[in-house]
TrEMBL record:
This is OmpA family protein. SUPFAM superfamilies: DPP6 N-terminal domain-like (SSF82171), OmpA-like (SSF103088). The keyword Cytoplasm does not apply. Residues 524-646 form the OmpA-like domain. One of its GO terms (cellular component) is cell outer membrane.
Amino acid sequence: MTLQRNIHLFLVLGLMACSLFGQEKRLKADDYFFQYAYKQAITSYESEQAKGTLLTERQTLNLADSYYKVGRFEEASTVYSRLYEKDSSLLNSLQFNMMLQSLSVMFDFNKVDSLLSKKATSFSKELFENKEFNVSLLSQQDQAEGLEYEIFNAQVNSPQSDFSPTFFGDEILFSSDRNQNTKKKYAPTGAGYLNIFKADILNDGQVNNQKVFSDIPASNFHKATPSYSEDLKTVFYVASNTDDGELVFNENGKNALSIAKIALGGRPQLLFRDLSTSFYYPFYEEATGRLYFAADFEDGYGGTDLYYVATNNGQIMSAPVNLGPRINSPGNEISPFIFENSFYFASDVFYGLGGMDIYQSTIETGDGFSIPVNLGSGINSVHDDFGMVIRNEGAGLLGYFASNRKGGKGGDDIYGFRVEEKPGLKTITVKGRVVKAYDSTENINNASVQLLGASGEVLKETISDLNGKYRLEIPWQDSITIRSTKNRFSSFVKNLKGEEIETVLKTDYNIGLALYDDLVEEREGQKVVKFQKFFFGRGRTNLDASITVELDKVVDFINNFPSAQLRIETYTDSRGGNSTNFRLTQARSDAVKKYLIDNGVPASNILYSLGYGEQKILNNCTNGVYCLEVLHRRNQRTLIVVLNDNILFSE
């Protein structure tokens, strides 16, 4: 069992039981439950039911929790479901997760999906994305990318619980409740209080020659889950809250766990102490100076969540920052560890293999995280697997984790492993905003964004939110295509491979879509491409820079809307002969057509290229009528008409 499960938040059971039960009739089974004697609690609750005793809702929930704790998932799922159907508010988010995990173990995935869909508004979209990704991944045989783990049970293990290994130079530190003559017993479990030990790492990775880690002063209560900083020569760890050598409790009888640190050869220093909040599994990251940890703050996403604080050489400099719903779930998250930009942690979220599973997430720019990926059956089991650490060793990697899987020596055992590559699935995360192509400050919502595979198949798709934001994540591909569409907007298609993909991973990838209605306008009763009016030289057909800069807008229009069909229309004023004007405008239309084709517009997009001469005079400046030059120039014009405007889009 993990530390979060081993060390419960309440140590004075009588006070806590009173606060929970109020006027309820107290049963012997309740005492068993609060003493973590779950098997005895089940037997006692079932005996009461057999005698006709009607269990309260709280006691029925205790029974469900007890079934869950001992791995009787069929009974747990039945009791949880019955309570939930009666009153969904009876289950908190952690118990809702336990219900879903029980159903998942029983392969009742349809019911899991049904219950989730009814609670869609109660949980983050990240939870559903994480679930979809991992369920799909775990169903594939190659989800572990072919990594072969050489896993071995550490010689250091005892018949008790041994867990939370951390590197300490050529040694490891770890936690254990193994019996020691000088240690008191931890009343709820009857085991020894946890202490920190160290042991040698041998050449083959095996671990032995364990002894108590004496750099931390001895105490009669919990000291556990160490994390060592080589830079600071400091050990961070959790400890029972004590004053003058005695446990201290809050008003509800809770003895919480604090986080402390000790510089080698120095004195312990408390970093976090709150009589109502327990802290677990500190991990200090050298690169950022951040101290990560698990805690059961009331405003979390579930049970224990993962947080960090900024530090200055280990001294806390900020308030705790929750790692957010991409990492934290309705379940419990514990044991953070960072290696080469990968964030490893354990979670009992319902879509895992069972119990606590180890996940890997890539740390993204802006303190973001990729979807946490279950490491799969190469590392994880249907039991609790947690507390992984890893480092480069020789030509490969050496790591350790803890598990209470079958075949071990005690409760939790420490396992070592060797592997050639870093555990975890490499993924591609493409995220950013969909914006107006010619005004990136204006976001586009409800745009479809897809990632396509090498054969054009849709690998993942989403819709941009109200702020234009989108995010897609898929297992690594050597090449991908990003496609985005929205009705009456241009389509965006971009092929990426190799270094281009690596570049996309490092920053936001904004997608620009052009709105059709921004690029066309109504003129003379027809829809035309929008550009500034230009003029040919008197009697001339050549295209100067003032003309080509406007025609480039037509090229851009076709690039955005390649299905548009065009007609080029050119007109003159009434001056000059009719035939001459007709030939002149036809030559001008042909010159425009040639320029467009030469600059990438397919000839098939230009259905007509017509010169109308002086046929369509827009004012009274007809033959023989004196007009100012400005009035004659009104009739000199070129239009690019969109012929299929009325059928170009369908709602």
